[in-house]
Design a protein that fits this description.
By secondary structure, this protein is α/β, with parallel strands linked by helices. It has 2 domains: about 1-175 and about 365-385, Rossmann fold, CATH 3.40.50.2000; about 195-360, Glycogen Phosphorylase B (Rossmann fold, 3-Layer(aba) Sandwich). It contains 13 helices and 13 strands. The chain has helices at about 15-30, 70-80, 95-105, 125-130, 135-145, 210-220, 240-245, 265-270, 295-300, 310-315, 335-340, 345-360, 365-385, and strands at about 1-10, 35-40, 55, 85-90, 105-110, 150, 165-170, 195-200, 230-235, 250-255, 270-275, 305-310, 325. The protein has a 7-stranded parallel sheet, sandwiched between helices. Strand 12, helix 10 (about 310-315) and strand 13 (about 325) form a beta-alpha-beta unit. Helix 2 (about 70-80) packs parallel to helix 3 and helix 6 crosses helix 11 (about 335-340). The protein is globular and about 65 Å long.
Length: about 400
């Protein structure tokens, strides 16, 4: 298939989940023999071995709210390429890829990673209602109606009227060839003999819960448990608060942002992967934990036992006492207790081996692309198109 992937608000290459997703999915589909063209905000040169044709196209003034003004440019590229499939990464103010697909006759695929439907108390919903005709809802509904396929980690974030036959529920993944227990390279934190490294990697947003890891280490220190070191990788709006919470606390390291190319070595040097999500801090998650957390898949691929709250979204990825430990999110000491249990090396090895095995089996980008390819091929056959 010839595929045009429209993700113009994503910076590629980049360190954030969306950037990694776009690059991994594009390269994965290209590796399966498809001709891939990607529209993105290009921030640097791609590796020489990339099989993807990368095209620079960014939202005007860098604003995602102006994405749709790029519709004429996207349509011109689509008419030039004549793709079999157009994939668009959904955004409230997007739709340029779906428009191009409908006008060129390509299969329209809408990749949805954030809610299309409004969550309870949504300010956007209140604003839409004041405009009487609800233009934002109507535009979102048009995108969903026009898509031949909607690809998402969870159908709960799509309108209920979307036919199940057009929905492909699929998790994100990890590059299990690059992320593995023996990955070498630069490690962005000191390695001290005898210390157990519990790593957090993320964008430091409120619902990522980085501060919960700091609080857990403080609880362990209060009980004179000193073998666990917390390493927090990344940057974002909650980083200053996490630093303040760690003030005066021994054994907490902040690395700042780390290039994604260095992450395999960083995770291979750790012992435990922590994902202390706090869904209550992010109102859209009232719809359900629709997140498909890149960090968790990369922890698992690296052979790390995962410590996370026992919420529905995490239970579909990590089985408690099999690939990791899921603690009660209402128990203030639950995270610390899980870390203390994983001071046992045999327990870490048991859970870590199962974690790696499941990542390879179910959560690799290769498996993600295989599932996506099958869905698109079947949809083209149903439409009576040719070169599926």
């Amino acid at each position: 298939m010839k595929i045009l992937y429209c993700a113009i608000d994503q910076q590629v290459p980049g360190t954030r989940g969306g950037s990694v997703h776009v690059q991994a999915a594009a390269e994965g589909l290209a590796a399966r023999g498809h001709e891939m063209h990607v529209l993105a905000t290009m921030t640097g040169r791609m590796p020489a071995e990339s099989r993807v044709s990368w095209h620079t196209l960014a939202p005007p003034l860098g604003s995602v709210r102006l994405r749709l003004t790029r519709a004429p440019a996207v349509l011109a590229i689509a008419r030039s390429l004549q793709p079999d499939v157009v994939i668009e990464r959904y955004h409230n103010f997007g739709g340029e890829g779906i428009r191009a697909a409908t006008r060129t006759g390509a299969l329209a695929v809408l990749e949805v990673n954030a809610p299309v439907v409004d969550y309870p108390g949504s300010p956007k919903r209140a604003l839409d209602r004041t405009l009487i005709v609800e233009p934002m809802r109507r535009w979102r509904d048009w995108q969903c109606r026009s898509a031949d396929l909607l690809v998402t980690p969870s159908a709960t974030i799509l309108p209920r009227w979307v036919p199940r036959s057009r929905i492909v529920e699929i998790e994100w993944g990890a590059d299990t060839a690059r992320f593995h227990p023996g990955a070498g390279g630069r490690v962005p934190f000191p390695i001290e003999p005898g210390r157990i490294v519990a790593v957090f990697a993320g964008a430091f947003r409120r619902w990522h819960g980085a501060q919960h890891l700091v609080d857990a280490v403080r609880r362990l220190r209060d009980r004179h448990v000193g073998a666990v070191t917390a390493v927090l990788i990344g940057e974002g709006p909650e980083l200053p608060a996490a630093r303040r919470a760690a003030s005066g606390l021994e054994g907490v390291v902040f690395t700042g942002a780390v290039p994604h190319a260095d992450m395999p070595a960083a995770l291979a040097a750790a012992d435990i992967g922590v994902a202390p999500f706090d869904p209550g801090a992010h109102p859209p998650l009232a719809l359900g934990f629709y997140w498909s957390p890149l960090k968790v898949f990369e922890y698992m691929a690296s052979g790390l036992p995962v410590v996370a709250p026992a919420i529905a979204g995490m239970r579909r990825i990590v089985e408690d006492d099999r690939e990791g430990l899921l603690y009660d999110p209402d128990d203030p000491g639950g995270l610390a207790a899980s870390l203390e249990r994983l001071m046992d090396g045999a327990e870490r090895r048991r859970l870590g081996a199962a974690s790696r095995a499941r990542a390879v089996r179910e959560f690799s980008w290769a498996r993600h692309c295989e599932t996506l390819e099958a869905a698109m091929s079947n949809a083209l056959v149903r439409r009576g198109s040719g070169n599926a």
